[in-house]
User: Fold this.
Amino acid sequence: MAKLAFLGLGVMGYPMAGHLLKKGGHDVTVYNRTAAKSAQWAKEYGGKSAPTPREAVKDCELVMMCVGNDDDVRSVVYGDDGALAGMKKGSILVDHTTASAIIAREIDARCKEKGIGFVDAPVSGGQAGAQNGQLGIMCGGDEATFAKAKPVLDLYAKMCALIGPAGSGQLTKMVNQIAIAGLLQGLSEGLNFAKRAGLDVEKVIGVISKGAAQSWQMENRWKAMNEVKFDGFGFAVDWMRKDLGICLQEAGKNGARLPATALIDQFYAQVQARGGKRWDTCALMHLLAKD
Assistant:
């Protein structure tokens, strides 16, 4: 049993923190910006909550966090009440936030100054993956730190791999989001074509999902897309736009051309304008089915 902390109890962090206690049997303390959420988690799982990141991480060997963006990361990590103010030398900070490679390298440098290990470890798999402990975790950091953290991360991972030095996890998540955006646009166009051609969409998916066109998005999102219903589940359009913004910003620095990604980002802006800020990312279909 290890003493752990988890900072940030959103739709991903809440169940992830639960696995640490429920599956791992660890001593877990949580922090959330909204204290009521921390209290709810502690009541549900039997763990503890703390009013600040600094208090939550006291004496912890490993600290995981999952918040919204670069600014949120800084607000939780830095300052008198931040995580770094309370973490002990030799402990490890793991950031599951989908953020920039810039913030990952920045936090890594600050951690090194204090003798603290750091792993940037964004996840993929959505809310269902977090709840079922079946996330893909792409990590950046040094091998020794990753090796210490991995047994704990495996409690909610289907796959957890070290890609390279600090920032590599975030860069890999960018690849993930670029690929998903393209997949969803292609799937939207294909399904819309099938419907307008008068085909039985369920039969179409039954066949093509067993061939080269198969994908997680196809198998898990085709029904919602066919019904043009995107509420109450999945990964929100607002979050995808945040992520694609990070991808486009990074591409501007490394010279990668992302013409389709830039276009799909604008399609998502149109979905937002239609009231779909919290719809699942498969809502690209709305622009084709509700024209």
User: Anything to note?
Assistant: The chain has a mean pLDDT of 97. The chain has two domains: 3-166, 171-289.
